[in-house]
Design goal:
By secondary structure, this protein is of the alpha/beta class. It has 3 helices and 7 strands; from the N terminus they run ββαβββαβαβ. Helix 3 links the parallel strand 6 and strand 7.
Length: 141
């Protein structure tokens, strides 16, 4: 946006030079940026509350429950072998005192689809509320 009006004398008495000096503008913008960077975390602070002290132990994190179905139709509940007939009873016992009723099912890729569905049906009858399927991520080609 800078332009010059040239006369016969380039820097003479009658010549005008119109240029915009952006250095002060850059200084102001950088100061504003710094102010916003410092004050933005303070805006998301929340409500101050004095929490009571407690001598109790923190809540224990429950371990994940994983049911594995092998290629030869073997069942393992968290690495322990389980008989097919005793699966529902073992699951009811395992989930009796748990707050989250989540079970992860790992099934071999070579096993028949019907075996996996039968196992899922037994898991549902045992009272498991949420059933997650464990898969392996696909490799990039």
């Amino acid at each position: 946006m800078a332009f010059k009006i040239e006369t016969q004398d380039t820097r003479g008495v009658g010549a005008t030079l119109a240029e915009i000096n952006i250095v002060p503008l850059v200084d102001v913008v950088l100061v504003l940026l710094l102010i916003f960077m410092l004050t933005a975390p303070m805006m998301y602070r929340g409500i101050d509350v004095n929490l009571p002290k407690s001598a109790g132990k923190p809540t224990a994190v429950e371990e994940r429950m994983v049911l594995t179905v092998t290629k030869d139709r073997g069942l393992y509940l968290n690495e322990r072998p389980v008989a097919l007939g005793a699966l529902e009873g073992q699951l009811r016992e395992a989930f009796r005192n748990r707050s989250d009723k989540v079970l992860y099912l790992k099934a071999d890729a070579g096993i028949a689809y019907g075996v996996v569905i039968e196992t899922m049906d037994r898991v549902r009858r045992a009272g498991v509320e949420r059933l997650g399927m464990v898969t392996e991520p696909a490799r990039a080609r």
